[in-house]
Amino acid sequence: MTEQAIKDIFTNRKFGIFVHWGLYSMLGGVWKDKKTPYIAEWIMKRSRIPAKEYEQLAEKFNPSAFDPAGWIETVARAGARYFVFTAKHHDGFAMYRSKCNRYNVIDASGFNIDPIEALADQCRKRDIKFCLYYSQDQDWHHPHGTGNDWDFDPEKKDFSIYFEEKVKPQVTELLSNYGPIGLIWFDTPVQISRRHSKELFELVHRLQPDCLVNGRLGHGIGDYGQTEDNDIPAGGTGQAWEVPATMNDSWGYKTHDRNWKSPQLLLNQLIEVISKGGNYLLNIGPDGIGRIPTQSIQSAAYIGSWLKDNARAVFGTKPSPFTGDFEWGYVTESGQRLYLIITDPDAGRIELSGLRTHVKNMSLLSNQTANISFNQQILPEKSIYMLSVDIPQWQTQRPLAVEVNCGEEISADKTITQKHDGKISLEVLNSDIDSGGDFKPGTNSSIESWLKPKGSVKWSFRVLQPGRFEVSILTSMPRADGDPASPVDWEGGHKIKISAAGQTLYTEIKKDFEETRTGSHAVYAGTRAGEIAFDSPGLYELEIEPEHINAKKGLGFTLRSVLLSSLIANPRGSDKLIKANA
């Protein structure tokens, strides 16, 4: 797959809608009057429902409210440009007419509409790229599929039988009978071998050369990557990538999941992901009769309304040319223009440090007549590149997108720099890693496989306001399956050496506090490592080297970031804050 094809099919589309819909939608997260705390589409496994008993749901499946045109109307109103539908989830039930396996929505139920055929037709009418999800590894209905250990003895399973009997024939059907498919979204590679992953990858491209394969096929094989569910990385990953996200906690419909994220939060997540060079795939879980929840319709419309007014700041853009986030919002780039997307309604005046290019003019995308005043300082000999922008009084709580016209190619200083609140955030994705190939950042922006006390991670950064800084280390606490109800796992006890500004700290990684982000299911353990002083403004380096790593669980040192927090009471308001490039 060429880089241009990936851009045309995937990267340039930026925003997609995911739909999880199947027999599990009928249950709504409840089995025999017992509510599952877990994500609803996993109810068969979590409640250990016998396959023969679960099969009986198909006989009752009659989604009288299923409206393909209405569904895709919701997708179009959201401003999404691709749509991913669950052809078969882990429960093994195919949501289309499959000739190779009668356990499907037509043959096993009284329903006579092929959802994939109907949805694909509606997507083509709207110029929305139609895509499919297929569970290639887990199948709790097939005796040789992964995951069902309550009906089928794991010791007697032969994955190759399942792969040949069901996976290959069904993927062939999906890519042969429904026209062009933009991408196929595989998931949870648990038992699949590298040989099988490679064979499936080649099958997809043989049947449809322009169909992309996502990053969860297994063994690092795929055309683009995914982060962990609901986890926005600290920065780009060096390839095309995507954040799959939910509107509440569950992917499938769940009657008692009322933990809805606000439309504002979902829009801000979309903006953040795109500013970092990724795609945002936002999920909707219709109920058992085919109705989309009201909250999902409202959030989709909110996002789409903003995109209609501010499309230039999103579609056709490149990621921010700067390193790290800004307190006031996010940045995208297109040609000779920057887009400053302000998500903080109290921003007033914002400061963008690091822009080396002179600004000609700027305007507000949603209101071209609004007056935008700005001031720019460019003093290369002092490493000062500061753009100050006065933001008009907000009339709504929606983000504002400011178009900055430079009239020439954008040049930016990428040095990590102290923020105006005094903090310096050192993310693994922005570091220099000396691993000898033994460890690297994983899909959750944290180090994976750092199991031995060798190698190091180093950052270069600029201090603006000197003084003493508290040093905190964040390590990831992964969940076995990404389910927010599942317990986290973690290994501490590592002995770490931290070097910066001629000073050395020795600390043990322990859980002094936990940290998460609103809307994210990722959890991080925080370690207070001590204090380091920077006596003057300027460039510094910080290096982390392990002297002992505890890897009894096989997780090891899951470093995510180092945070330096100024101990000055109010560095943001200090008149002594030296403004330099970010």
From TrEMBL:
SUPFAM superfamilies: (Trans)glycosidases. Its EC number is 3.2.1.51. GO terms for molecular function: alpha-L-fucosidase activity. It comes from the Bacteria. Keywords: Glycosidase, Hydrolase, Signal. Gene3D superfamilies: Glycosidases. Residues 4-311 form the Glycoside hydrolase family 29 N-terminal domain. GO terms for cellular component: lysosome. This is alpha-L-fucosidase. It comes from Limihaloglobus sulfuriphilus.
